[in-house]
Amino acid sequence: MIVMKFGGTSVSDSNAITNVINIVRKNTARKIVVVSAIAKATNILEQAAHLSANGRATEAKKIIEGLVSRHYTIINTLIKNDELKAEATEKVINYHLKLEELITGLAVIKELTLRTLDAFRVFGELLSSLVIYYAMKDRDMNVVLADSRNIIKTDNEYSRAYPDMEITLNNIDTHILPLLKKGKTVLTQGFIASTNEGIPTTMGRESSDFTAAIYGASIGADEIQIWTDVDGVLTADPGMIKKAKKLSEISFLEMEELSNFGAKVLHKNSIRPAFHKNIPLRVLNSKNTASAGTVIHKRLNFPRTIKSITYKRNIMVLRLKPKEGINQYIFWEMLLNILGKHKPQIDILVSSNNAIIIVIAENNYTKIHYDDLRNEFEEISDYDLVKDKALLTLVGADLYSVNNIEQRIFRSNPKLKAESIIFGYNPHSFTLLIDQKELKSVLQKLHKEFFEKQDGTMNLFHKAK
Ligand code: ADP
Ligand code: ASP
Ligand code: MG
Which residues on adjacent β-strands are paired with residue 334? Predict the structure, then answer.
């Protein structure tokens, strides 16, 4: 049994979907196929929600119409059978109507909550899975469409909900496994889920990978395949480094560091479920099926080697010093209470005996909650904020024992300040905090230093397409 997950670019239009269907059919294993929304759909849905909340319902409806019509094009191109075509069209019309209702309602209320954002977002995956399902049926595949909202049950932390693994596993056991055993291919949506009360949730942007890992771990799959638009896990983001090379393998622990510190290729939450069940994850290119991709597994092979460099932009650094008269331990307790209440996603937290430094990414979530956080911090601390920083992280097995790692970092970047090194608190990663405007140049120099000087004979690094 395997899980195959296809991301937004792999299902962006009729041609891409035909290609995906061919990949799925070629594999004779029993499988769950997890799909994302078609490219850009989630962004468009979020945009429509924001426009509606600003009272701009007409514009919101217009961009939704554009999104829905891309699905009609897919139906008309890929579905030949008239009955199937009519069924698919009717269901898309229904989703469209529901979206229009949401827009109208929100334009009256004019208050956008994370819960309402999720109500919009789920339609991306609902629409994509629907048209792909009918395209598969049209090709006589033995496929069932399962609704992840009925299977994956989460808490009510909208926009970044986390599943209750026990209930979810139970649902997969009762509703999905029997279908697989009957030889059916189960098609379902990534990213979306619902609370126990049935209110739609999403598990964080890019979390379809996580969905795939949840299904894979629950059925005890032999492999969880993440099909995307690059040959595998690369030595750096190919958008920043043209010469980035593909890794043949990497360990779960290293991959977790890469994902945590920004590598978009795999969602950070997708590693744990696979790790616990020791199920390999494989990142593959749907546009280049000849490549064997990158396998992510338990073994920490190739120790003392830098394997990849990643980055995170829009980093803020908060320096908090307790106000006069507040004892250090009380300060820590108050601070943890504030953090526990707002639950921002902290990248790094360091403390000395008179200050705490919090390194955090400025994202949609922190934007919404930032003012609340600041108000509460200001009550207990002198507060200093530095923005426009970036985190750059080198990842590899057992970096403590890499010879001259610090010297090589600084030699290749003579202008780098010592304050930029945060630490090496994890043996598999090494993080630098730098000015955002320096990011590209530092990254290029580090990539050159660690990956472009080798002769390429090692069987870890391969040319990527
Ligand atoms: P999908 O839509 O399939 O989920 P994503 O866009 O989320 O695809 O992830 C794949 C993208 O991740 C690649 O196109 C690449 O630009 C980016 N990326 C960033 N860092 C890396 C890396 N180290 N290795 C591979 N891809 C990376
Ligand atoms: N469609 C969602 C997003 O764009 C989930 C995903 O693609 O993984 O964030
Ligand atoms: Mg992704």
Answer: none
